[in-house]
Specification:
- By secondary structure, the chain is α/β, with parallel strands linked by helices.
- The protein has a single domain, classed as 3-Layer(aba) Sandwich (Rossmann fold), CATH 3.40.50.
- Helix content is 45%, strand content 15%.
- It is built from 9 helices and 8 strands.
- Strands 2-3-1-4-8 form a 5-stranded parallel beta sheet, sandwiched between helices. A 3-stranded antiparallel beta sheet has the order 6-5-7, with no helix packed on it.
- Helix 1 packs across helix 9.
- The mean pLDDT is 95.
- It binds adenosine-5'-diphosphate and zinc ion (ZN).
- The site of zinc ion has 8 residues, from loops.
Length: 221
Amino acid sequence: MKKANIIMLGAPGSGKGTRAVALCEVLNIVQVATGDLFRFNLKNKTELGLLAKTYMDKGELVPDGITADMVKQRLSEPDAKNGFVLDGFPRSIGQAEMLDKILEDIGESISAVFYLDVPDDEIIRRISGRMICKDCQTPYHKEFNPPKVDGVCDKCGGQLFIRDDDKPETVKKRLDVFKSSTKPLVDFYSKRGLIVKLPSELSASGAVADMRELSKKLGFI
Ligand code: ADP
Ligand code: ZN
């Protein structure tokens, strides 16, 4: 069995979070989502959280060094040894180079980069209506993936909320940042033969089934 150290690449709202959660369930590995780590720090009012908020609220990237340190710390924890899904990192060529260095330091490498290519108008439709669980961060959508009970997480009973940065003006800025800074990573990882393109729509059987099938195809299970 191949070890699964996977990067999820895609615009905000492309559905990478949903796939990342499913992949973790299928492969029993950990999700390392930089956005969630920042929000967790913010909730606990850490220095890192308060600093990150000033960038996040504007739809800008948190500086690379801060983000990379946080990722290195998380990937160095014992539960990441079985494999991980990086969700939201790297987001620029600079961060990808930092990631290479981090992985070299901890003796790991990238197994695959899953890329979700979703058109802009679809992204906007998906982000408006997005809600996440305040306790376990599971994403929902009022139209495409509604919780069983309005405003309540199916998994843990936590309250669902709409993120501050899911406001329309901020969404537009985040899409611009994606195009200019993050999209070049598709080329960067293509040259290493690591890109696996995922369909932008989930099949009728859902994210877990899709990720299981893909994992089998790639030899992760
Ligand atoms: P999305 O992918 O939907 O934009 P995230 O939860 O991944 O949402 O990120 C929310 C915000 O957190 C980003 O707009 C950015 O400000 C910050 N952030 C997350 N990941 C990174 C990163 N790798 N580098 C810099 N900033 C980041
Ligand atoms: Zn929850």
